[in-house]
Structure of EamA domain-containing protein:
Amino acid sequence: MGYLFVIAAMLIWGSVGIFGRWADQPATVIVFYRVVSAFFVLGLFQVVRGGGLRRAWQEAAGQYGWVVFGGIVLALNWIFFFQAVTLTSMANAVLSYYVAPVLVMLLAPLLLKEKLEKRTLFYVGLAFLGTLIMNPLGDDVGGDHLLGILSGLAAAFFYAMVTISGKKVTGMQAHTLVLWQTGAATLVLLPYLLWQGMVLPPTSSIAVMVAIGVVHTALALTLYFIGLSRVKVQHVGVLGYLDPVSAILFAYLVFAEAPSMGTWIGGTLILVSSYLILRTKETGGRLDGAKAQDAAT
């Protein structure tokens, strides 16, 4: 079941680009509203189900450092990714960003004491090759383009740390973890937005960004951390490549953007690598991260 939760999160995240177009706002504004609305909705959920925010805070006892760290790297991940999209081509940004699963695979043995699996190394390589075919590196690699690629790599590092920190947290329900991570991310992003000069967006844009916060942040992150608690981090890294595949599918269904031959070939390689991972066994019943009780909520 853990794999299904991760796949569901990736499919949801694949549609975030569509909602981003509909929002028609600067990237930092979208990120801010998504974490604020996610924090508000999850806080309300915590109050309604009983216990309130105090109980949720007590649940994080002894792990405040990892929880807050997770929120900070979550915000930095989004900031650097959207910075990459601004400075360089989408192909350069996507390719540099999807170095993240490779970083996760390399960091897992060091920080989580997971044994590096040779077959997983092959699966990640296959998926990254698929991403390269789908988004070949652009010819421009100097000036702002180089800075954009470096921003994408920075985003990849912070995404990897989001995954590592989520695995480090134990004994917390997934939605509680996301609650405090989005709260920390809000505190990180607010000064950044105020420094840029925040203007109240149109009501229609706010509605779309709230939807992103509820569906693509609160729900998807909760599903992701539930899956992360049941599956090896290295396997989660491979499944992460389903995100760009689902994004292309949604773009075709909603905007009639026909995939190229390279997209078909690259996407097939990613799907094959994901299938090979799904054939492996899950890591028993022990939950290292957020509790599985969230599966019933």
